[in-house]
């Protein structure tokens, strides 16, 4: 993020302010598309539905935030706080690094990597799942790092080309 720039989800724009897929020219700039609501300022990952009406962000300190676009403006809907599964004295982070969302069903399913870890290290974190049924949706652990020498960061969905 540029100094003095608000946090959020950005796109690229050409010199005239038109959206471009990649920054291929020197005059390409960043355009803030979804501004992050305070106090959610440490965005490490995001995903958005193809309609461009729902976006989720992963904040390294605060969890997962849902934004909804209505009337042409993005609004924070709610935050999913990530409950920790290690003692508070050993954990100093409550957020997420990576995030991806399956928008194919009636309720979006969020997958994220957490930032907690033992002894001040983000190692030994988790992969969690949230089925977005609303602000009180349950956070479920899918995988726990088996060691303080292993950490989960990014996460992505891949297509199933098996034909099944």
Task: Calculate the terminal CA-CA distance, rounded to whole Å.
Answer: 42 Å
What is the helix/strand order?
A: EEEEEEEEEEE
Tally of strands: 11
Low-pLDDT parts are none
Number of helices: 0
The biggest sheet, with number of strands, parallel, antiparallel or mixed sense and barrel status, is: 4 strands, antiparallel
Task: Give the strand content.
Answer: 35-45%
Which bin fits the share of residues in helices? under 10%
Q: What is the global morphology?
A: globular
* Count of structural domains: 2
In short:
With 164 residues, the chain is mainly β.
Structural summary, described in words:
The protein is mostly beta strands and 164 residues long. It folds into 2 domains: 1-35, no CATH class; 37-164. The protein contains no helices and 11 strands. The protein has a 4-stranded antiparallel beta sheet with strand order 4-5-6-7, with no helix packed on it. A 4-stranded antiparallel beta sheet has the order 8-9-10-11, with no helix packed on it. The protein has a 3-stranded antiparallel beta sheet with strand order 2-1-3, with no helix packed on it. Strand 6 and strand 7 (73-80) form a beta hairpin. The chain is globular. The termini are far apart. The relative contact order is 0.14. The model has no long low-confidence stretch (mean pLDDT 88).
